[in-house]
Amino acid sequence: MNVNNPQFHLKSSLIFKMITLVVVVAAFANTAWAASFDITDFGAMANDESDDTKAVLAALAACREAGGGTVFIPAGTFIISRQKAESPILALCSNLTLRGEGAASILKFDPKVNQSNFWRMLGSSEGEVRNITIRDLHLDGSNTYPKYVKGETPEQCHGIYFRTVKGFSENITIKDCLIENFCGDGIGISLGSRNVTIRDVTLRNFIRQGIQLAGREEDGNYLVTGCQDLEHSITPGGSTIHVEHAEGTKNIQIIANRCRNSILAGGVNGLIIRDNVVNGRIEGNLNRNILLQGNIIRGTDSPRPLIQFGYARNLIIRDNILIHAPATKINEEKTKTKRIGIYVWGASRYNPEPSHDVMIRDNFIQAGDVAVSLNGVHGADVRGNKTDHSNKAGQVLSLKRTENITTDSE
What we know:
Elements (H helix, E strand, L loop, with lengths): L5 H29 L1 E3 L14 H13 L3 E4 L3 E5 L9 E2 L4 E4 L5 E5 L10 E4 L5 E7 L2 E3 L17 E5 L6 E7 L2 E5 L4 E3 L3 E7 L2 E5 L4 E3 L6 E6 L2 E2 L11 E3 L5 E7 L2 E2 L3 E3 L2 E7 L2 E3 L2 E4 L2 E6 L2 E3 L8 E4 L2 E6 L2 E3 L16 E6 L9 E7 L2 E3 L3 E6 L1 E7 L2 E2 L7 E6 L2 E5 L3
Parallel strand pairs: 1-2, 2-5, 3-6, 4-7, 5-8, 6-9, 7-10, 8-11, 9-12, 10-13, 11-14, 12-15, 13-16, 14-17, 15-18, 16-19, 17-20, 19-22, 20-23, 21-24, 22-25, 23-26, 24-27, 25-28, 26-29, 27-30, 28-31, 29-32, 30-33, 31-34, 32-35, 33-36, 34-37, 35-38
């Protein structure tokens, strides 16, 4: 290599300029994201009865004007109230991290929430937003209703609510939050949502659903993992994790959560429910390409099957442990209904389509009356499933209106 060659110096100069440009661009990007806005600098005051909504909105507006950054919620309780519109009260902008100091950083609804409806604390308004993180916060919905009463409970009062009809909310992360006392959903992810991660969120005292997921065919890539609901002091009206109105939403993963209530999921193309501990059941209709694996499901006093799927296509249920509640806990009215471990069905009067291509392998079903029941299923492999010896009169496999079934059961 001839360092005295003019071409060598020209190439060296170009390389140096390119490196300098990369460093400048990276520094600019880091500066844009480094801006920080403490809500107390905008007039929010912790632990009093004053309304802090406008101060938090001012901090969010400053962050939006800066092109993104961090809005910080320090320790203390800050009061949030509805601002006329039904949109989320605290509308979040792109390139935003909204964070606190953990459970001590509380955003709490004004108690007037119990007198009206459509209070949504955090979320997106119309238009596209992306790259949003909500973390280390405690959201309190101030609910005083002990249970759901139709026509009385204001069921549209949510903690986090993303719904965008025109545009998309993309790259959303919700992590390490405590969300409690909402008479609607703790978290609602709806139309126009893509690439959503909900991780290590703790829920308590939700009246509607803990985590609600929905979307359209162009929406999806949702992950819910490491979440749990604590013991409730009210009567939850819904599931810990609930997917409905999905309309073909793609790729939803529900992995390693602890649910005091059920997991219900319908209308998904590409559904994984794996390694969860559930008190209740796992259920869904109109799903395609489904894997249920490694879950532990403990039944309640409900007579409904512990796993139930209808109108399914490409369904794998394997390596799950299903434990029915003792028969003595089933009330007299419900004892007439057979307790089923796994039930797959289709071809009803509402929909002539049977369930197709089902594999039910290597599950353990404790107690109950029927381990596996297929009704309106075309194409199934049912082998290697085990039952305990305490219920010798129980039926391992029940078949009705089925075709092309492979089984090792007698």
